[in-house]
Amino acid sequence: MAPGASMRALQDSPTALMSRVPGTHSSQLLPVYGSHSPLFRHGRRSWSSQHDPDTPMPSFMDTVGNITVIKGRDITFTCIVKHLGKYKVGWVKADTKAIQAIHHQVVTHNPRVSVTYRDHTTWNLHIRNVQTDDQSHYSCKSNEPSCGQMGFLEVQVPPEIVDDESSGETEVVEGGHVHLFCKATGYPTPTIYWKKEGASKRDKVQEKGENLTMSRVTRHNMGHYLCIAKNGVPPSVSKRIMLRVNFEPLVTLPINMFSFPEGDDVTVKCRVESSPQAVTTWRRVPGEQMIISSHKYNATESHQDYYVTIMQLTIRNFTKKDATNYICAASNSLGSSEATITVNAIPKPATPKPEQEHRPPKQMSSPKNEISKDELRRKENLALSSPDDLPIPTDESGRQIIPVEGINTGVFEDENLENQGRNTRIGEHQPGFVEQPKGYDVFNFFGSGSATTWNTCCSSDVTRAMAVLMVFLATLYNNKSFE
Q1: Per-residue exposure over 144-164, b if at least 16 CB sit within 10 Å of its own CB, e if not
Q2: Where, subcellularly, is it found (predicted)?
Q3: Distance from CA of residue 344 to its chain's centroid?
């Protein structure tokens, strides 16, 4: 008889199985097959007639125990028997009454089943890669008729969505009702939860059960819905179901009138809601000529959410000729919609002409204030010359106008020079003149208000650069009446 013999087969041909287990007599194996067997009663008489009263009977030290395992893992049932002696231990799967093993010999032809033992006391039944049909009671028995223990193997199965029995992408017209359904298998039986992906509080869905029904659906119900199956056995699984709510397009404008300066690149926008997605166009009034992207126009669109499209029209180098009405339009299988944008031009401000430099009219000088161009040029050169090379100022008759060394006041040698203040000189600093280290002195001679006296304003011990600067400033002051 082949491995995996059933109870019925063993009753029909017990000797065939005996031949597979060396050293095992029929009277030793019959109790393993069950007390309901006709051979069991015969075997019990045989066993009793052979039992030595002085030999202790086999006894089970502990229960086999129950095992809960997730499908695909390995398990081991352990049976500890004391005083086994010459008797054998067998493993039986209760639901099918199929013998799994006798002593150290595997009987079933299931390749995932094996047995091990230790010290003729501990007997193990191993099942690798447990499957759902392995779930059952398993008995550990000896061929002593009253001995045996039983344990239960529970096989848990993670949830799995049955696609063929669940909704796929679903469409509904706005205002209608929709029914979504989801089927899952697993052990224990999974519970189905529904959730809308990325939903706000307003659109949040928290339903439980295989079916989800919604009435009077709107465009806000559009989106992906998750069917989530849980049974406490990881991992939980989910299926993504797309719900499309179809409706005719609606075109809206954030602003329906714009004003742009000429010469700029300008952009106008329209917002379109539609499902299915609409075909969008731009037209220009008058004539309602359709606008196509070119070097002058650039029409683009971007998508937001499941049903919102933003239309954009860019007008390059905007001019007064481009100031008109523009129509943005959208259409799908359910209808169409459009809106009009008015675009005005703001003239470019005129570029101001460069202002001519304003010069005050020349003042006629009195004869005594007249100065020749050569003299003016000489005075200009005076301000820009090296201090060592600067000439000493003179009056109109060529006389030098300088104070006596060490004296800060004096008498004008020419009364026509009083109150003019046009005489400037740079000279080497003289020790004792001003108590400063040697440097350069700058003298500027001004009238004191008297017709016959003058005084000086001077700076001592300045650098050559500062001296030149001071002379230059004084020269500008001296020449201001001759501009």
Answers
A1: bbebbbbbebebbbbbebeee
A2: Cell membrane
A3: 39
Look-up of token digits 């989910």:
238
Residue 414 has pLDDT above 60, yes or no: no
Indicate if the pLDDT at residue 39 is higher than 50: no
Q: Walk me through the domains of the chain, giving residue ranges and CATH numbers.
A: 7-157 (2.60.40.10), 162-247 (2.60.40.10), 253-346 (2.60.40.10), 367-482 (no CATH)
Of 26-40, 159-173, 348-362, 443-457, the range with the lowest mean pLDDT is 26-40
Mean pLDDT confidence for 112-116: 97
User: What pTM, to 2 d.p., does this model score?
Assistant: 0.57
> What pLDDT shows up at residue 325?
96
